[in-house]
Design brief:
The protein is mainly beta and 122 residues long. It has no helices and eleven strands. It has strands spanning 2-7, 10-13, 18-26, 28-39, 46-51, 57-59, 67-72, 77-82, 91-101, 108-112, 116-121. The strands form two sheets. Strands 2, 4, 5, 6, 9, 10 and 11 form a seven-stranded mixed β-sheet that branches. The N and C termini lie far apart (41 Å).
Length: 122
């Protein structure tokens, strides 16, 4: 069984910062791409940032220059440093990872965390 757990969300004023963490655990053989998604009330879930196992990153245009995604492969952990937060960054932030699970052959499957709430007040 594999689990992704997010932490670090909370309430912050506009202009403030938060750091989200995502820890993967379980029978993990390897983790490929990892990413952060968010879902605002009444809106569809959207991609915020992704990072490959080799450290290549990509960001949603509206967060470029403010958010930084990183990971520590040895710890199966990913982070999202969010600076200069805006009210429109409010939402539930989800961690996702494409992984190869031990004992299930070479197939890659996508796994999701349960999310952490980020609220930015104006």
């Amino acid at each position: 069984q594999v689990q992704l757990v997010e932490s670090g969300g909370g309430l912050v004023q506009a202009g403030g910062s938060l750091r989200l963490s995502c820890a993967a655990s379980g029978s993990i053989f390897s983790i490929k791409t990892m990413g952060w998604y968010r879902q605002a009330p009444g809106k569809q879930r959207e991609l915020v940032a992704v990072i490959t196992s080799g450290g290549i990153t990509n960001y949603k245009d509206s967060v470029k220059g403010r958010f930084t995604i990183s990971r520590v492969n040895a710890k199966n952990t990913m982070y999202l440093q969010m600076n200069s937060l805006k009210p429109e960054d409010t939402g539930v932030y989800y961690c996702a990872a494409r992984m190869v699970v031990t004992g299930r052959g070479p197939d890659q499957d996508d796994y999701w965390g349960r999310g952490t709430q980020v609220t930015v007040s104006s």
